């Protein structure tokens, strides 16, 4: 079937003239619909993102104000003392002097004689940043009876720097104590100005007070090396 | 032919309907245009009101003040870092000194410790005495500790021998630690 539509000029003019009054308003309505999708919706999205940005900026400002408040109210002298104690507890690097003086201090405090012992320094060129808690291990021969060894072990576990006893071996003639001294490089400090600064918590203060009760052999004089004293390999 | 018969609508009535349609359409178009303009203006004003520029200005001011305390900020970071690490070490650290103290406290007077080995998992002890009663008391004490889950969780008597040369009994025990 031929579905061709024949429209001559006269017919078109007739239709145009008949619908002419609707033309303007229909065009305006059509333009409004286009404007709504092209202009109002993006503008609305802009408004939502501006609102989000405002919320984030307000939050960041609040954090910054809290940070400023913490920084201005922190007593720097007290902070320095706390950091000193904390660094003595967990040194930033291999602190052999602190380890040796700790052992010497405990030895003299408990009256326990020590034999020759060595520190395993390890590969100094190797990075320790990946280790969770790097340690320096040493095996200390002790010339004492059971009570003396026990006293030595109890005292060194409450002496700075922080150590862990991994083996206690009390024999008939000699006794041996294996110790691991902890240290931890700082690492990971980035100047992130938007990050929240934490002031010391109650838990942190309790820890510092606990550590104040620990013995600190570093303040005492260092031992003078003798033939039966310390060897660093 | 009768003039009353007319299948088409009255011409005026048709014109009125048409005019009403045009007016309605015009009204809708104008209202849409005005509505669009009002909404657009409202959103524009809202964006201006909620602009974060004043907050950013305040932020810059606070940041400038904070920059004077950079040293203190770094110290607080170190303090926080050390506290977290020390807390973690103290939580995971096994206190063998406590183990040896607790075990030695359970040793009766007439019993002598020949050897004691404590590591992070087990404890082995060899003691000797001239009296079997002391050895029995010692084993009872250790058994009580296992029952109460105090420091040790198991007890194995490895050997119990009589040493003729020293005229004494020697007992070796091994336990798994609760740590």
Notes on the structure:
The complex is a heterodimer of chains A (233) and B (179). Chain A is an alpha/beta fold and 233 residues long. Chain A has two domains: 65 residues; 131 residues, no CATH class. In chain A, 50% of the residues lie in helices and 16% in strands. In chain A, strand 5 and strand 6 form a beta hairpin. In chain A, helix 3 packs across helix 4. Chain A is rod-shaped, with a radius of gyration of 39 Å. The relative contact order of chain A is 0.14. With 179 residues, chain B is of the alpha+beta class. Among the domains of chain B are: 40 residues; 81 residues, General secretion pathway protein M, EpsM (Gyrase A, domain 2). Chain B is built from five helices and four strands, in the order ααααββαββ. In chain B, strands 1-2-4-3 form a four-stranded antiparallel beta sheet. In chain B, strand 1 and strand 2 form a beta hairpin. The model of chain B has no long low-confidence stretch (mean pLDDT 87). Chains A and B meet through helix 1, helix 2, helix 4, strand 5 and helix 5 of A and helix 1, helix 2, helix 3, helix 4 and strand 1 of B. Strand 5 of chain A pairs antiparallel with strand 1 of chain B, so a sheet runs across the interface.
């Amino acid at each position: 079937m031929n579905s061709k539509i024949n429209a001559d000029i006269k017919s078109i003019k007739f239709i145009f003239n008949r619908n002419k009054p609707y033309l303007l308003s229909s065009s305006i309505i059509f333009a409004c619909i286009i404007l709504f999708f092209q202009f109002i919706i993006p503008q609305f999205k802009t408004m939502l993102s501006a609102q989000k940005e405002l919320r984030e900026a307000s939050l960041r400002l609040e954090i910054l104000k809290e940070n400023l408040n913490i920084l201005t109210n922190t007593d720097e002298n007290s902070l320095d003392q706390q950091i000193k104690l904390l660094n003595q507890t967990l040194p930033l690097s291999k602190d052999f002097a602190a380890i040796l003086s700790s052992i010497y201090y405990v030895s003299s405090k408990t009256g326990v004689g020590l034999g020759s012992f060595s520190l395993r320094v390890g590969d100094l060129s190797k990075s320790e940043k990946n280790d969770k808690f790097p340690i320096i291990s040493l095996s200390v021969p002790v010339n004492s009876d059971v009570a003396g060894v026990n006293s030595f072990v109890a005292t060194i576990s409450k002496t700075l720097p922080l150590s862990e006893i991994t083996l206690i071996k009390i024999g008939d003639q000699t006794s041996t104590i294996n110790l691991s001294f902890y240290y931890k490089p700082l690492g990971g400090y980035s100047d992130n100005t938007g990050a929240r600064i934490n002031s010391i918590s109650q838990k942190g203060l309790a820890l510092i007070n606990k550590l104040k009760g620990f013995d600190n052999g570093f303040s005492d004089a260092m031992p003078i090396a003798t033939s039966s004293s310390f060897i660093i390999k | 032919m009768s003039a009353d018969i007319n299948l088409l609508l009255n011409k005026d009535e048709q014109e009125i309907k048409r005019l009403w349609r045009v007016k309605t359409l015009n009204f809708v178009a104008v209202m849409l245009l005005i509505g669009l303009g009002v909404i657009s203006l409202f959103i524009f004003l809202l964006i201006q009101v909620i602009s974060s520029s004043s907050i950013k200005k305040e932020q810059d001011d606070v940041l400038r003040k904070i920059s004077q305390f950079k040293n203190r900020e770094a110290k607080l970071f170190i303090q926080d870092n050390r506290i977290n690490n020390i807390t973690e070490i103290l939580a995971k650290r096994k206190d063998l000194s406590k183990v040896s103290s607790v075990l030695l406290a359970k040793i009766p007077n007439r019993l002598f410790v020949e050897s004691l080995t404590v590591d992070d998992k087990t404890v082995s002890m060899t003691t000797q005495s001239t009296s079997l009663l002391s050895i029995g008391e010692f084993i009872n004490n250790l058994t009580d500790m296992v029952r109460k889950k105090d420091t040790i969780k198991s007890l194995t008597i490895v050997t119990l021998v009589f040493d003729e040369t020293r005229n004494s009994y020697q007992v070796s025990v091994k336990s798994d630690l609760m740590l």
